[in-house]
Amino acid sequence: MWLLDQMLRRLIRKGRLIVIDHDGKEYAYGPGTDAPLRIRLTDKGASTHIARYPRVGAGEAYMDGRMVIEPPHDIRDLVLFVALNAEGDHERALGAKGPLRKLLDRVAATVDSFNDRRSARKNAEYTYNLTRRLYELFLDEDRQYTMAYYRDPAISLEQAQLDKKAHIAAKLHLDRATSSGKRVLDIGCGWGGLALYLHRHYDVDVLGVALAPDQIEFCRERAAELGVADRVKFELMDYRDVQGEFDRITSVGLLEHVGTPQYPAFFEHTHRLLKPDGVMFSHCCGRAGPPGTTDAWTRKYIFPGGYIPALSELVSESEKAGWQVTDVEAMRFHYAHTLEEWYNRTRLHRDEIVALYDERFYRMWEFYLAGAEQAFRYGGLVNWQLQYVKRRDAIPMIRDRMVEESARLRASDTAPAWHLDPALKQAAKQAAE
To answer: Lowest mean pLDDT: which of 81-90, 236-245, 254-263, 340-349?
Structure first.
């Protein structure tokens, strides 16, 4: 306990934390007096495991039941509490300890992000081929597994995800009057929501590609059900194998999986695929500061091969391939609100998720969502949206049309209700009675 005790005495400067060691001894940290957050360690080695590499050790200790958060608090409360105390210096406070461990972690992160074709497919299947039901339980009705756009933090997740699609579409510079039949490539198409949205609003033909078989199967089912499978097509394909010419290219939540060693190939190949007067749009998680590494816990359990890029990496690599960056937007805090709602929906379905997998998986998912939220709320992560062109005259000279088109699209749609909302289920039950 000595090592963890020393770390917490340096770290905790706000609020109050009580740690109960395996032998029942209590340790108190922080100046607060009201409603302390209490955690209990269940075995002798848990404290050392946490202290040596807090990001990995705390996650594994929680997953394995070696660290228990006592009610009324939960793991999100603990993660946000620690993040608030470490605000502005997360790497020093929560990263690997010791020069050798830090070096090994950087080397491992670099190797993991190489993402050749075999690794990319394997990593995509690991991340996205989980049971369909799992994603249905915590995502919005359209299964958008990327940041929602919260114009107002009080709106529903469904509305925020619909607004996100309008915001993206506006940056593609499409026009219903002239876009019919134009070809759009959606790289990393997820569960097909954006591809179907673009076809519905602009009558474009869309090819969505991804590497997770179940995602592509689900996308095809959606297109067939809507009667648009001849216009919105989905292929189990590496983006490096796509051929032809496209008027627009989108990638949402894709660059985090490409890996920096593959950035030159990504930007060069997409440059070949886009028509001279076309537009490419990219939305990804990003670092507000300089390049870094992905923590070992996330690489091991959630996104193997994943890396969140700095803006400097996205811009410098795209410039080498001949792209011109015509618009950049830093999306701050939106993902924190999104992850908070995903966490709450996950908690609502604890029993079903445990039945689908097991208790350890459920705790892993809780820790992942809470940890990601703190990084976007208190840490150094944002979302980057970038617009790229090959020709300077491919888009209007001012941004007014983006704003106007986004507003027009928002006004044309009504967000669905989440069919698993407890309030809706209760109302349906009462109506049936």
So the answer is: 81-90
Same domain, yes or no, for 60 and 188? no
* Verdict on whether the full-model pTM lies above 0.85: yes
* Count of structural domains, the chain: 2
pLDDT of residue 34: 83
Quick: pLDDT tens for 143-186: 999 999 999 999 999 999 999 999 999 999 999 999 999 999 99
CA–CA dist 170, 191 (Å, integer): 21
- pLDDT-derived band at 111 (thresholds 50, 70, 90) equals low
Is the CA virtual torsion 164, 170, 174, 175 positive or negative? positive
Model pLDDT for residues 22-52, shown as the tens digit of each residue: 999 999 999 988 889 999 999 999 999 999 8
The residue segments making up the domain with residue 84 are: 2-97
Give the other-Cβ count within 10 Å of 322's Cβ: 12
Residue 422 lies in a domain: no
- From the list 235, 272, 267, 227, the residue with the least C-alpha distance to 251 is 267
Which is nearest to 375 in space by CA: 313, 305, 302, 316? 302
Distance CA 34, CA 72 (A): 13
- Name which of 286, 313, 300 is nearest 109 in CA terms: 300
Helices 334-348, 157-171: inter-axial angle, 10-degree rounding: 140
Predicted local distance difference test score (pLDDT) of residue 40: 98
DSSP string, 183-199: EEEEES-TTSHHHHHHH
> How many CB atoms are closer than 10 A to CB 15?
18
Are 262 and 159 found together in one domain? yes
- Strand 205-210 and strand 232-236: pairing? parallel
Residue 195 sits in a domain whose CATH number is 3.40.50.150
Q: What is the strand order of the sheet 183-187 is part of?
A: 232-236, 205-210, 183-187, 246-252, 274-287, 381-389, 324-331
Spatial distance between the Cα atoms of 334 and 153, rounded to a whole number of angstroms? 8
**Any residues with CB less than 8 A from the CB of 350 and at least 6 apart, and which?**
362
**What is d(CA 10, CA 215) in angstroms, rounded to the nearest whole number?**
45
Question: What CATH number is attached to the domain comprising 44?
Answer: 3.30.1050
Q: What pLDDT score was predicted for residue 87?
A: 78
